[in-house]
Design goal:
two-stranded antiparallel sheet; 4-stranded mixed sheet; 11 helices; alpha/beta
């Protein structure tokens, strides 16, 4: 199996920087800026190699009746929008929005939008940008604290699909909002990049522990501080808790066991004691007990503070380092 190329990784990062446009960088610039980036991306994806031998993966059926509840109706609206736009070859939802086990106000909207080659053309790129912006706004009604956007990939990347994006074996639990019953892809090895991601998280948490500031995912110019020194930081705290809850599945991925995130919590208990996993358990408790009424601006609720406890940055860094040290166990 070939390895994930640096060109694909950096191009995908640029693709998402352009079409997520979180800070309004592209929207606020003259049209030639979008043209410049789109032309470059179009040229890059033209050069990605074709793969003749692909695997077909069956998807779960997207039944619109499952999404008629108030908190899920936005997914039907997204489905209508992407069907109208005709810029996606597939649009996959996975995680809690696919298995319907979501916690309103906490669960993220996890999705992979597979853009057609034609979406980057001069005729279509503006519509592509506007559609991506529109559906991003739609999906944020599920969780005001969501810290990531829709992951956009180019359809040429299905010729070299890495577990870095989403473990291939988990795609069978995804649904396509365009109604596609299956997708075709060729796998590419991304273990080196997955290790870099894991070690990057460990380093970020260590720096946060040492400084008392998690310098990641700021909101209004503010970062998460240790021991609730600024209570207006629920968005930042949620990011921290989600990272803690992501670490076990990334750890198992690196050991060659590509499991679901929810399964990793039970599996990891076989490797470590309750005291070693205490910050993970606290993060899980916050998620399980989250109530929509807790959403009050960006204030960290007292219930969350009481549940999580103090020195969370120190405890989180200790947990991450323990996993890193035991990668070969």
């Amino acid at each position: 199996m070939s390895s994930l190329s640096k060109l694909q990784v950096t191009s995908n990062s640029l693709l998402n920087w352009v079409f997520q446009d979180k800070d309004g960088t592209i929207k606020g610039k003259p049209s030639f800026v979008l043209d410049m980036f789109s032309n470059h991306l179009e040229a890059v994806y033209e050069k990605l190699p074709e793969t003749k031998h692909k695997s077909k993966i069956s998807l779960l059926r997207f039944d619109k009746k499952d999404y008629e509840k108030k908190e899920l109706r936005f997914i039907l609206e997204i489905s209508e929008e992407i069907s109208k736009s005709k810029i996606f070859s597939s649009f996959l939802i996975h995680g809690s929005c696919a298995d319907l086990c979501l916690v309103p106000g906490w669960s993220d909207f996890d999705a992979i939008g597979i853009l057609k080659t034609s979406s980057l053309s001069r005729e279509n790129r503006t519509q592509t940008f506007e559609t991506c912006q529109k559906i991003d706004k739609m999906m944020r009604c599920l969780d005001p604290y969501q810290h990531h956007g829709i992951h956009f990939i180019h359809e040429k990347e299905m010729n070299s699909f890495p577990n870095l994006y989403l473990p291939v074996n988990l795609l069978k639990g995804a649904k396509c909002l365009l109604g596609n019953p299956s997708i075709e892809l060729a796998k590419v090895d991304s273990l080196e990049r997955e290790m870099l991601r894991f070690r990057g998280i460990v380093k970020t948490l260590k720096n946060a522990s040492d400084s008392g500031i998690l310098k990641h995912h700021a909101k209004d110019g503010k970062y998460l501080l240790e021991n609730y020194k600024d209570l207006e930081a629920m968005y930042q705290l949620k990011y921290f808790l989600c990272v803690i809850m992501l670490l076990p599945v990334l750890w198992f991925n690196l050991k060659g066991d590509y499991c679901r995130k929810e399964d990793s919590y039970e599996m990891i208990r076989k490797y470590f004691s309750p005291s070693q996993l205490e910050v993970l358990e606290k993060a899980s408790q916050v998620r399980a007990s989250w109530k929509s009424k807790y959403f009050k601006g960006n204030t960290i609720p007292s219930e969350v503070r009481n549940m999580l406890g103090m020195d969370y940055l120190v405890r989180g860094a200790k947990f991450a380092k323990m996993l890193e040290v035991n990668l070969d166990a």
